[in-house]
Amino acid sequence: MLNQNKVEPDCFIDFKRKNSPKNYEKDCDHVVRECLRDALLKEQRGQCFYCEQKIKVSRIDHFIPRDAPHEKDIECNYHNLFLSCDRKESCDSYKGNKFDESKYIRLFSNSYEIEMPSDFFDYTTKGKIRPKKILSDDKKIRAENSIEFLNLNHNELVNARKVMFKNIESCKQSGLDIKTIYSFFEEFESIFKKFGAL
């Protein structure tokens, strides 16, 4: 899962100032949605926020679902929006509208401090994502729940990460540095960070 570095685009700020949207589905037109998609794609460096694979077909996801009970002002809050791949077996399509903020890491919250995925997750060379060993019991449970919530250990994702680890090792043996190797693939950013700063 990517770390957040969210900067709300001017087009969305202007749209909200002029239109005061309350309902994302009804109030946000095609133009503003494309502006959001472009901003999120750039912000996430072309990767799905959740699985980190290069995005081919994308969806704008509300991490806290728009119809989550007891949540206010989340539908048009940029910090609750992430770009997700369209894979049915994981990520946004898999999680659907189920949600309980106390069970998952806090990518967006009206009640808690925002958390960074890199503080919670590690990746094995066998392709699995897992909670970091140093986590408190509460954080470990929420990390495990988040992996399950998004189905981030789906077989296809595990295999793709495993192949990426092998590709990185092979390229390193050829004498390439990690930044150059990343420029070939531009996905699975968290895996590359295990090998050094990007």
Number of strands: 4
β content, as a range? 5-15%
Annotation field: number of helices: 8
**Major sheet size, sense and barrel closure:** 2 strands, antiparallel
Q: Percent helix among the residues? A: 25-40%
Structural class: mainly alpha
| CA-atom Rg in angstroms | 17 Å
First-last Cα distance: 16 Å
Across the major sheet, the strand order is 1-2
Mean pLDDT: 92
| Envelope shape | globular
Task: Return residue spans where pLDDT drops below 50 for at least 5 consecutive residues.
Answer: none
SSE arrangement, N to C: HHHEEHEEHHHH
How would you describe what is shown here?
With 198 residues, this protein is mainly alpha-helical. It has one domain (10-193). The chain is built from 8 helices and 4 strands; from the N terminus they run αααββαββαααα. The strands form 2 sheets. It has a two-stranded antiparallel sheet with strand order 1-2. It has a two-stranded antiparallel sheet with strand order 3-4. The protein starts with 9 loop residues before the first helix and ends in a 5-residue tail after the last helix. 30% of the residues are buried.
